[in-house]
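Please, structure for the following, as tokens.
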Amino acid sequence: MKAKKENKVYTITTDQEKQRYLKEGFDIFDDDGNILEHSPIKKIEYGKYAALKKELEELKQNGEAKAADPMILEILREYASEHEINLGNASSISGIVKKIKEWKKNNPPDVNLKAGA
């Protein structure tokens, strides 16, 4: 396995190393370069999420969302993972968005965060 963050790549062999690197913000990849696990401390800007959500809804209205589905699902899953949102059995875009909305309703944004941070 490999731990990657920015331009740093480390080969790891134990689960203990994996957990340490995850806590330090590294993503874990298998030896073929496929992502195994994202770091739980990695964050994406809410503005990017909101823009993608808006774009998705516009695509759905125009019937063009099918080609973008895998990419949008990945982004929504990553957002949920980064915010520790339990998706349960949700596997569709609408199901994941519903879970995120429920989570947001119960977890108001931190007013101390800088806009766009």
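The longest strand covers residues 2-5. The beta strands are 2-5, 8-11, 27-29, 35-37.
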